[in-house]
Every structure is written in structure tokens, then in C-alpha cells.
Protein 1
Amino acid sequence: MTIQPRLVVTERRTDGSSVVAGDGQPAPISVAAAPGIEFYLLWGTEDGGTTVGTGPRQPRTLPFFPGAGGTRLLLARYAPRSSVAEPVGDPESLAAEVAEKLPGLTDGDEPDRPGLHTTDTLDYGICLEGELYLELDDGREVLLTPGTCVVQQGTRHAWHNRGDEPALMCFVGIGATRES
């Protein structure tokens, strides 16, 4: 059974009681520059740190990657590579769509090695469905299956679905400062 993403958000009222502030199914976002991937931008916090307490909080899901101290929670569903066509369109149009729908998504991409990217984030990833390969810059690949957790510490990497079914990953990204 395919997981249908759902987001439940709680908050604390001024009287101290806890309530459900939201419960819904987020819509996937796709861009032609990354065919076969659906992004579910669930929640995020401002850069610099997070506070909790009373009153509603609004999510900060863009730019795609947080700056230092910010966070992002998202799901990404990767179609099997065998069912994904190459990006169609001129490079300027593809880049404009990304800038509009998912600003920052391609900031760490490497033009000479499609899919490889590096971000200034500490990422926690959990494979929820399917199988996905994590490729590192030395060419090593690690197969992720449901239940596999990944701690990505700002390293150069790429994701590949070589299976027959879609793969669903949950990511928590924490903006970090890169040391030299």
C-alpha cells in the first residue's frame, strides 16, 4: 500500500491547552528539471533557531534548504529510473520553474555530474517505501530499504531509484555552518 502523506500540526493556546492546529494532506510539487520526483514540503522553521510556546506558528518551507539554524521536514517520492524520461525544455525555462516552485533546490547541483549535490545541512533521512541507492562522490553506493536511516553530514551525494516501485524518503534538514 502506498503511503499517502498527511501532516498533523499541534499548537499551544494562550490558556496553556494543546490543540490540533492543522490536519491535512499536502499536495506534491514536481518540476520538469527533476522528472520522477515528487516533493511534499511539510514544515520548516526560520533560520537562526526555533522557539515554541503559545500561539500559531507558520511553516517556513522555502527556500528548499534552510540556512544555519533553520529546519525543513519533507517527503520525497522517487519514481523508478526506468519510468523517468530526461528533462524536457530549454535550460532557462527549467531553471525558472525551479526558482518559482522550489527555490534553492538546485543550488548545490553539479552540472557535470547530474544528481550529485552538496548542501550545508545536516540531514536525517528515513526510507519509508521502496528501495533507493545513496551514491557518494567516491562512487560507492548504499542500498536503502524501508526502515533504513541515513545521517547525511553535508557530504556530496545523489539518490537513485533502480527498483521497480516508487521509493519514499522522509528528510529532516537542519541548516549548518560549513567548516573549512
Protein 2
Amino acid sequence: MNDVFVLLGIDMETDIGSFTPFLQGVEKGTPLLLKLFNKKGIPATFLWVADIISQFKPLTKEIERCGHENGCHTLQHETLGEPYFDIPLIKPVLSEEVAYRIQKATEIVGDVIGTQPLSFRTTRFWGNEITLNTLNDLGYLADSSYPMYYYKKQLTPYHPSRENWTESGNLNILEIPTFADLTIESHDEYGRDRDQWPIFRIEGSQVLMNHIENMITYFSERNLPKVFCFYLHPWEFIEVPSRLTYGEATIEPFPFITKNCGLKALQELSILIDELLQIGGQFYTFQDFAKIWNKQLSDE
């Protein structure tokens, strides 16, 4: 179990997530990522909010041409699952809406990319049984909504239970936990300071590599596969103003959200990829990793 598996998930959404209607990141940041990934020779998974994908059909074709995967990241960047903590004005959709919204998002993304998306991630990693059961029944191969920093229970990819999505079971879909450093002491009520985002950008790639190396040791001591799933956003790789005014409001995100966005973020991501390749990291799209993982299970 010396292999190091690396998965990069790019959330294709409006700038700064739910807080603006702008798409400068998707338009201008995505080509920068494609150029970087091509230079490094690595694949990634681009997870689209269905509400915006129809504006970028040529970009989805370029993503596919470059050997990457197009997946889905909800219908309108809404919250589908159970909230772990309060965010002002952000409420999960009603449970009876969840299946329809996922079905509709899948249909829209599928119509644009020409085939059904096979990989998914919820907004803010808030999942639940309805979400995973719906994804499974729609034929998705992979989901990366499990926040390792919060549950701290599933350390490696697993097939969820229909009754409890955070437990192993018999669903076909593979749940891929999103990386967190469980070796450090958390000073946050919810463990969010163990999460990897956006350490590479605000503290530097070497700081994130220290956390990765911590978990490599942690996995090795437990004889577990070393799987690292990261999430990024294309708006992180363009200059993002610290204060935005539009409509009838002014948005001023916390400094860490916009700090070092642009060229600095791209440089640090490039260094991080090099560091991961140097330690033998093997990069996969979500769906290709799920196929490999499932084949290994069937061969055992």
C-alpha cells in the first residue's frame, strides 16, 4: 500500500461560491488550470453547477479533449444535505426537493457534455441519505461529499449504506472522503481547521505538504490506502476583489477566502503538484479512480 492516489476536484461555480452571480473564475481561471494540468500531465475532475454549464459548452469540450472529467456540483449551488453548522441565510432545500434537483442537474449537465455525469459533490459537503441514494440510483460512480474533518470516521473510500451514508454498506457509488489532517489538534468546534482548503494558497504549498505527510504516516501506521482528494475553485486563480458591490448589497468575504487569489495561487498549486508527483502521487479523475478501486475490491 505504498501508492499515493491524488484526486483534484474543481468546483465550477459562481465566483466566491454562493455570494456573487459572477463567472470570471470559470471563464478566465479554468483555462489557466487546464494549461497547468497539461504541463504537469495530470487529470482532474471539473464539477459543474448545472445552472451555469450551458454558458460554457465549448469549455466542457476542451476539458474533455484535455483528458479531464466533467461532473456535477448540484443544480444551483444549493445545499442538499444536513447542515453541520449555521451559515446566515443558507438553508438546506426541503428533503422532498432533493431527488428532483439532483435529477434535473444530472439531466442538464448530461445534455451539455453529451453523456451522463458520473461524479458529484454536494455544496459545503453537507450530505444525507436521500442525496447518496439518489446519486446511486441515477448511476453515479463517485461522490466526494464526505468531509473527513467533520466525521473523522471514514478514512478511505467506501461504498455507503442506504440507511446511513456515513457508514459502509452496499451502494454501488463510491464515496471519496475529502482530505483533512486528523493528526493535528483542532481549535474549531467543527474541526474545520483540519480541512485542506485553502492552505496551499494562504499559507503555502509546503505547509499543505506537511499536512499531507502527516496523513501519509497516519495511513501507513494503520495499513490503509493513501488517498488524497482535494477541492479547488477556478475563481481562486484570478484576482478577486476583497469587497464587491452589486444589486442592493455589498459583499465583503472573510480575508482568507480571497487572500492570494490569482497568480500566487497558481504558483503554489504548481509547486504542490510537483511535490505530490515527487513522492509518487498518481493522479486520477474521480470516475477513473472509482473504476480502479472497484476492480481492486473485486480482485481481492
Protein 3
Amino acid sequence: MVDKSELDLSAEHIQSVCGTDPVAIAILLGHGLEGLMEGLQDVQSFHFRDLPGFPVKSEPSQNEGVLTIGVLEGARVAFLHGYGSYSDTGILNSMALPFETLTVLGCTTLAMATGVTSVNADIIPGHIISVVDHINLSGLNPLVGAASEGGFMSLAEAYDPRLQRRLRRATVSAGVSFQDAVMMWFPGLTFATAAEVKVARTLGADVIGHSFIPELIVARRIGLRVVMFGVVAGYSAGFANGNPTHASFRAGSQQGVISLRRLWRAFLRVKEEAWSGQTSQP
């Protein structure tokens, strides 16, 4: 899936600057959620353009991809933010090499933070959600054509149950609650239509997202454990008078950053339960 020479070069460059202490956890940030980086110490940043194999824009801009490594709540954390995901690049497995690089740096856990729109009257704008499952009927899958690299893969526990329980325990010290949600993924770059929203509701979705499902699949193929949480940036089109725009969606996501940051930092502080071999849901 990746060029090993580029993987080695990127990992070596990062370690030459940051040292070889392992990264405990990484987080992929949706656009507008960079506020989750607040409080990061001992910061080292790398532009994707300087890391072989990382996705880059043909014309550099302020939204180019950046890998930032530092210490937060006593944990060594890597943040992936800016340009790079499928919605930016149009390449389904564009984050494969960055994720592989994380594993070389010692990372085994990936968090994803994203904005979503609600199709459930009980999940209102400003609320925090934990994605426990998703619906992807787009026909898009980054593993198509990669059958020789492992064949069909189960997504039964794509959203790691232990990480979900850890997130739930973090609510105690964070003073922030969240709601479990099934997310239906539409690739964008358009918001779902009112008719598509009706389909999503009928099929059992609670929220609609336009980010990170290809990235989730790639991460699971690589062996990273994943937890996904997000901010409800508004209602979806045709539901509860929803009519999302780029500006309103970004503003709605940013309004939830403080609560999401409190939950994220508490999540880092909470120790994960020992694995018992059980696969029951939280």
C-alpha cells in the first residue's frame, strides 16, 4: 500500500528531530478543530511537503498538511491536521503512508475528531458524539484493488470497544457528556440533500459526516485501533430547518471545540482497561 523507501525516509527524518521515544496516540483533526492542540508542549511540527510520501497540494497554502508532535497530559501525542484526507486530495488511501509512519513511531492508537450534522432530534447542535458505527453506501473503499494485501477485512469492531469505554470514563473528569451515534458517510464536497437525509434517517443514521471513513478503513487495515468523536455542527438539510453551509458548518464545529478539548484531554489522562479477550460492546 505504501512505498517503503518513502516510509523509512519520513520516519527517520521525524525521529532525527524528535528522538525515538514512542508516540502514545495520534489524532486526525477535522478542519476547524485545531483548537484541540491547545496546551501542547515540547512542540515539533513537520509540513507534509517535507515528508516523503505524505499528501501535498500542488500549490502550497495555509491549509497544507502538518504533522505536529508534542506532549499533552503527560502523553506523547501526534496531531495530523490540514490538507491530506480524501475530501482534500480525492485519493482514497492518501493517508496510508502517514498512518504507516505513525506505526513506525510506535503509535498503535488513532483518534479522529470531526464535525457532523444531525438527523436525530435528540442530538442537537453543540453536542458531542462518539461514533460507534457507520454506514457507507457510496461504493467508495480505499481497499479496492488491494485484495492481494489481505483480502476482505472485518469492520465489526472498527470503532474499538475498549477505547469507547475509555472515552466514556473520561466524561467524569471532563464534565462533558456525549451521545453514541451511527454516522452515515457522504463523500462531499457537497452536503447531503434533503432526500439523502431522509434515506439516512430511514437506514438508522443519527448523524451525517463527510470526513474520515476512507481514513478509518486504511487505519484499520494497517492495524491501528480507532476511536472517533465529534461535534454536531448543525442539522442536516431538510431536517429541523437545517441548511448547512461551509461557513455555518465550520462555525458550528468551532463552537464545540472547548467541550471536545476537555473530553480529549481527559481521555489522555484516563488509563485504558486491561484487555480481557472479551469483545462485548461498551
Protein 4
Amino acid sequence: MNLRRIYVLRIGHRPVRDHRVTTHVGLVARAFGADGLFLEEKVEDSVVQTIRKVCYTWGGDFKVEKLKDPINFVREWKNKGIVVHLTMYGLNIADESMLNLIKSSERDILVVVGGEKVPRILYDLADYNIAIGNQPHSEVAALAIFLDRFFDGRELLRNFPGARVRIIPSSRGKKIQRVM
């Protein structure tokens, strides 16, 4: 049984300007199967609070933590796991051999997503620089597509333990079940 865990590191956050994008990176990471999110120290506390509130209400065991030195964190991560950097400059995810190599690893995975100004060293530190298409796109979309392909869509059927509310699927309208 594989106990590998997947975490996301969001780098390149621009305070105030990227508040919503960084929050969405966290929401997508949680909903699409990641175990946690690491953020730069400069990320507003309200981003962390929003993600934690979603976890409290909608369930799951999702870790959110701020880091003083994300690049050093990536260096240290390489001792215990692999680093996948999502970038439009990487090898296209459509080349399934790259994705199969990542899937075959039993080591923990750190998926790094960033904005425009990703430090050059990250491209060298990453074990895999993977592109979700080689055109400009959102890091939120890249993360969603990567996680969906990594989990073969199974993450969309997960139950989140400890949920206080759940959606009851419906073809029309909104149906919510309060659990607690």
C-alpha cells in the first residue's frame, strides 16, 4: 500500500494582488486530492484563514503552513521526496511517460506552482518541470489538471471526513446536507 503524500507549494505571491489566486490554489489543492499547502511568509493571514475555514466546514485533513524560505524548503524536500514544478516551459503533460514516472515513485511529492516571476533556481531544483500546455495559463488550472491526471479522476469521488456540510448532487438547484 502506497502511503505517499502530495503537497503543494505556492510561490511568487504578490500581496494584495494575488490574494484570490493563492486562495484558489489552496482550494483546488484540497478538493483535488493534495494533503496540504505551503505558502510564502508574505501571504496574507486571511488567505490561510479562508482555507482553514473551508476545511473546518467541508471536512478533510488538509495542512496549511507558511514558510520563511521556500527555496531552502524545496532543497530539503529533495531528501525525502520529489519536486514537480508546473510551468508552461516544461515537458508537456500530454507525454504520459513523464506522468507515469511521477506516479511510479513511492516518495512524497511536492508540486510547485508560481506566478510570472519564478526564481530560476527552481527549474534546476525540480525533478520534473511539467507543462500543462506550452502556452500562458493560470497556475490554478495547471494544478487542477495535474492533480486530476495524477489521480486519474478518482479524487473527484472522495469523501472528506469531519465535514459539517455535504452537497447532495442534483441536476437542478442546490441541495446541502448539514452533518453536524
